[in-house]
């Protein structure tokens, strides 16, 4: 029965669960898969989530299909290990998220009215999540913000939580003033303090920069991804122009590459 399921191309999620069970079988499975645990697999899970986001950003729908499958595999991997340890199963994970979605959408699955703005729905969503945290004995404002999130994303979530209880600058100009203050402190630290203290001041500056993005209605993570993409595009164009001259960055210099960079920027704007 197991082999029939594994080679049944139309079997769906049951096929994937059986494949993972076979891979993890202590006697007949894959040695690498058998050795893995939650900690070793977690980095792959994060990587696959980013690859999903990358495919979406590039509007590569065929690749997105594959990346979503890879991300689904991560869920199956973790649930297989959870079942082996007696913590949970794939079915209990599915049941949990279904119950959560029904509970968080009373305007769809209950008797609440759907006649409300997206802003009101967001407030209701956060209220329900706060009630869930209270049920888990998470009483603090910042409780439940995952430590393992990318630092920039976690900074944004922490700031949003604090803002809900009034701990926030009332105006964007105040945030900009704080950025200037943190920048001055970083310069002072660079000249007079230890490397650890410089790192601390640098972190403070990044944290406030994330806050500025929130005040401007921007996603700092998305903004930085866009900046990364722009830098990559322009630097590759600089390399291309160097190749036209029979050169590479290693045998160029900053003055030449900087001039080419300016030319690339000008070409993009024209």
TrEMBL record:
Residues 36-109, 176-235 form the NTP pyrophosphohydrolase MazG-like domain. Its EC number is 3.6.1.9. Gene3D superfamilies: MazG-like (1.10.287.1080). Keywords: Hydrolase. One of its GO terms (molecular function) is nucleoside triphosphate diphosphatase activity. InterPro entries: MazG-like_dom (IPR004518), NTP-PPase_MazG-like_C (IPR048011), NTP-PPase_MazG-like_N (IPR048015), NTP_PyrPHydrolase_MazG (IPR011551). It holds the Pfam family MazG. It comes from the Bacteria. The keyword Transcription regulation does not apply. This is Nucleoside triphosphate pyrophosphohydrolase. The gene is mazG.
